[in-house]
Structures are given as C-alpha cells and as structure tokens.
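Below is a filled-in request sheet from our internal design queue. Each sheet records the structural input a requester submitted and the sequence that came back. We keep these sheets so that new team members can see what a complete request looks like end to end.

REQUESTER: design group, bay 2
PRIORITY: normal
MODE: inverse folding
CHAIN LENGTH: 524
BACKBONE (tokenized):
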C-alpha cells in the first residue's frame, strides 16, 4: 500500500525521488508577454513552480527559455538534481490554458506525471491546479486514483517478467493545515479506488483459460476474505461482507433459463455470484445493486464470431469485474451503504449442446424468448440477473455490460452509453461521470424500439431482425426484466478495454461508479 503524507511547507526541502510542479500555458493571444510572475517564457507559473524557480535561481525559467516547454497540456520536462531542491528530480507538468483546466485535464496531467515519474517517492503540489468546480479532497482522491492506476502494468506471463516499479510514498502539499485529516482521508480514498481498479483490470486482462466463471467466484471469495481479515472489534462481530453463488442446479431450480442457455455450449458451469457489503446502519436498508455481465469468453456461440474479433472477447466479463471491485471499494472505505454485486458468469461457446438460433427459452421471470442470434448472449444472462435483483428491493440498480458493437459505432471508444428512464438517476450518474472523467452519454430506449423485439411465437426475440439501433434495442430488451426501482444500463463495449496491439482493460466504468457511491454515501 502506498504511504501518504500531507506537508504544509517547504516543498524544496523534501527528500524524494521527484517533486512535481505545474505550469499553465500562456493565455491565448498573449504569447509574447506571459502572465507568469517570473516574466520569462510563454507559461504561467503556479505558486509551487515559482517557489522552485526562486530556490534554484532560475531552473524553471531556463527550461522555458529553451522553448522546449510551454505549459501546453500534457507536456512533461524532467530537471535532474537542480541545486536548491532536495528532491532528485523536478518534474514540470504542462497544464494547458487555465480557463480550459477541467476534470479531464486534471486526470490527463496526472496520468502523464505518473508515466514520467521514476523512483518510488513523489511530492505533489496539485492543490495549485484544482479545477474550478472541485475541492482539495476531490483533487487528492483523483490524483492518487489516476496515478496509482496508471502504474498498474498488464499482468505479464512473459518468462522474463520483472515487477514494475511502484509509487511507495506520496507527499501531498497543502497550505491548509486544518484540512490535514480530511486530506489524508481523501488520499486514502484514492488508494482504495486505484486498488479496486487494479482488481478489475487484472481480471479483465487475464486470459480466458484462467478467468473462468469459477475463477470469478473464487476472486469474490478472496475479496471477501481480505475485507474480513481487516475488520476489527465490533465491526467483525456481524457478517458485513457475504458471497453467495448459484450453480447450475440452483439456476435450474430457479428457472433461470437465460444464464443456463448462454452457458450451455461450454464444459464449464455457468454461475450467478452475489457479493455484498452490508455497511448501512440498518442491515435491512434498501441496497444499491450493480449487475455486471460476466461472459468470460464470447466466441459468439453457434453464431461464431470472425477470428479477428474474437480475442477481444476475453474482456466480455468486464462488467462483472467492475461490479465485484466496486463492492470491495465500498467495503474498504466502510461506506454506510448496502451494496450488492450480481455477476452472472458463463462462457459463450459453440458445441453439440449449444443454444441454437431459433431455440425458445424460458427466463427466470417466466417470459419466453426466441433466440435468433446466439451472439446476443449478454442480454440473456443479464435479464435473469436483473430479475433476480428485484428480490433485493434495490434503492437503485445499475447494470454494466460490454453489450453491443453498435454502441461502439454510435459513441466510439471514450464514451459509454447510458440508458436510464429515471431523470434523477441519469443526473446522478452523469454528475459522477464528470467528476470521475469517465464520460457517458444518454441514449434512448423503449418506445418504438419495442416493435423490433416482437416474435410471432414467443414473448420476445433477443435481436431485432434489422441491423440498426443495436444498442438501444439491447437496452429495450433489458428493460423488460429490470427491477421496479430506478434502473440504469451502461454499455461499455467501447470503453472497458483498449484494442490493438497494446489492448488492455481500462477498468471503466469503475471510476464513475465509485464517484457515484461516494456521493451517495455523503448523502446517507
Ligand atoms: N460482447 C459482444 C459485444 C461487443 C462487441 C463487445 C464488440 C465489445 C466489442 C456481444 O455479446 C455481442 O456479440 N453483441 C452482438 C449483438 C448482435 C448479435 C445483435 C454485436 O454487437 O454484434
Ligand atoms: Mn456476443
Ligand atoms: Zn458478449
């Protein structure tokens, strides 16, 4: 775990591997004479940058004079061993224009700083550049979350793998002596959030021969044990974290034909995992339920995917991973909320037993579905889990799924699709997304899209028989099974992982879900 401290003076005297200071770009149309107090180069000094400038008799302005650094957003320059500063490096971080400095800029700058930082200890002066609408607690939490996650490597299976260097110590500079306790708590929150993201990322990056439904279940058990091991005294007296699992037999008894159908073609057993944190003062208080799609590999079933797009389908359990990690985060921070993760897990493979296009299955809520495409499997297993969520009487329910390629076509790879019929919940999630720099965009569902899901022999079909509006059609399908509470569906097919040669899990939409829970906990 990273050690965090708050320092209230003399940044230049801290013994550390790096001291980071920020500089804004010169305001537009003012490139000759900068607004900077040092009056040198086209950049605007923050207070800490000026302190370093003065302590080093001009080390910063000498960099600016070369023109190599202008304070543009994302620019990084490292000064080694400057006289007058005890840290072994000073990292100059470009912040971009001051009036454009928002949550996204704050996150991007901290990712760049983390990527550039060598060594294991760092001094941050990020209170010099907090976006206007945010406070120091937000800044401390966000900086730590972003930086520690950036330092998370893809788990390596290379024979020559070496552990990646980590940030072991972070010093947070603040002039607000009275806020020390609050800031330490915020830094700790950032560490916990980064840890949850690591858990989700590691599950996502794991190859599908290791990340099976059973592995997902064992992970939930390990997370529960880790939380329980850390509970002391009164806290430990009542079971605050629980894991339950429904296996094939249980699913059969409960009539969960959707989850069973998806897993039918595989030799591994489908499961429904329920991982919960009971943190509310009242154990019976309505929980927040997060349902995550846990298809540990989506070959497409008998509607086999083309070879090129198949390897990415190891990430098709990212929703489930996010849901499990979210509960771990809630538990680690002892949030005063009841939070339940429901993770339906299965492998979608072709075989002699596999679900056939044209099969009609009966779902947990006893509706019948004509399965026209075995590759539209996510909605089948989510539908049963959503129906199951109803039994928990949720205060709110959010499902997270790498559900449709159509959502990627519509929104690209930086924005997740948000489908929600409650304007309050839409507002909460949109606000959390902004705070977390984990963007979403509201999308339509229901209404006329229902026409596309009509079957002449069953209650629903699982795919519309035309190629348009795939993301909205899928959301409309889920809506038929959603619990009677404020419900939202997040389609993260484009955002949960990157693609190409360096493809890896991003742990999204965990940042937004975590900010949402923190905001809810604040209100509780
Ligand atoms: N897991 C896929 C969706 C997906 C596609 C995720 C691309 C990430 C990247 C999902 O199960 C799927 O196969 N959806 C089909 C639905 C179609 C058959 C109606 C799709 O999007 O093509
Ligand atoms: Mn599929
Ligand atoms: Zn899928």
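RETURNED SEQUENCE:
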């Amino acid at each position: 775990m990273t050690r965090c401290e708050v320092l209230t003076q003399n940044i230049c005297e801290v013994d550390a591997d790096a001291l980071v200071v920020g500089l804004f770009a010169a305001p537009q149309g003012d490139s000759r004479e900068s607004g900077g107090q040092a009056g040198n180069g086209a950049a605007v000094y923050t207070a800490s940058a000026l302190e370093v400038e003065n302590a080093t008799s001009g080390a910063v302005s000498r960099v600016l004079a070369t023109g190599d650094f202008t304070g543009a957003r994302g620019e990084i320059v490292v000064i080694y061993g400057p006289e007058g500063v005890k840290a072994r490096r000073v990292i100059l971080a470009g912040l971009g224009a001051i009036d454009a400095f928002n949550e996204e800029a704050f996150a991007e700058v901290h990712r760049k700083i983390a990527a550039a930082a060598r060594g294991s200890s760092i001094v941050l002066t990020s209170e010099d550049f907090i976006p206007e609408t945010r406070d120091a607690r937000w800044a401390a939490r966000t900086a730590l979350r972003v930086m520690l996650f950036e330092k998370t490597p893809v788990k390596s299976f290379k024979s020559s793998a070496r552990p990646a260097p980590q940030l072991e110590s972070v010093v947070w500079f603040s002039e607000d002596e009275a806020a020390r306790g609050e800031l330490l708590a915020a830094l700790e929150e950032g560490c916990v959030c980064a840890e949850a993201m690591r858990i989700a990322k590691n599950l996502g990056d794991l190859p599908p021969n290791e990340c099976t439904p059973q592995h997902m279940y064992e992970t939930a058990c390990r997370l529960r044990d880790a939380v329980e091991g850390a509970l002391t005294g009164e806290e430990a007296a009542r079971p605050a974290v629980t894991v339950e699992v429904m296996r094939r037999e249980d699913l059969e008894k409960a009539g969960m034909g959707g989850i069973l159908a998806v897993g039918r073609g595989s030799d591994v057993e489908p499961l429904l995992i329920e991982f919960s944190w009971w943190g509310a003062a009242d154990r019976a208080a309505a929980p927040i339920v997060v349902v995550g799609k846990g298809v540990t590999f989506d070959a497409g079933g008998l509607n086999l995917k083309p070879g090129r797009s198949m390897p990415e389908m190891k990430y098709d359990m990212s929703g489930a991973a996010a849901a499990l990690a979210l509960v771990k985060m809630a538990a680690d921070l002892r949030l005063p909320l009841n939070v339940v993760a429901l993770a339906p897990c299965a492998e979608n493979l072709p075989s002699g037993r596999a679900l056939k296009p044209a099969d009609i299955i009966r779902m947990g809520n006893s509706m019948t579905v004509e399965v026209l495409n075995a590759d539209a499997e996510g909605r089948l297993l989510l539908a049963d889990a959503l129906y199951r969520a109803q039994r928990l009487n949720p205060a709110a329910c959010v499902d997270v799924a790498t559900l449709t390629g159509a959502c990627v076509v519509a929104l690209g790879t930086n924005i997740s699709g948000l489908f929600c019929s409650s304007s309050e919940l839409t507002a909460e999630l949109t606000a959390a997304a902004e705070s977390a720099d984990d963007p979403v965009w509201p999308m339509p569902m229901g209404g006329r899209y229902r026409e596309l899901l009509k079957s002449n022999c069953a209650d629903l079909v699982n795919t519309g028989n035309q190629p348009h509006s795939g993301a909205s059609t899928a959301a409309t399908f889920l809506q038929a099974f959603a619990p009677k509470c404020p419900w939202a569906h997040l389609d993260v097919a484009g955002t949960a992982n990157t693609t190409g040669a360096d493809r890896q899990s991003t742990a999204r939409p965990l940042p937004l879900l975590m900010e949402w829970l923190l905001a809810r906990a604040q209100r509780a």
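SHEET NOTES:
- DSSP finds 15 helices and 19 strands in the chain.
- The first strand starts at residue 3 and ends at 7.
FILED BY: M.R.
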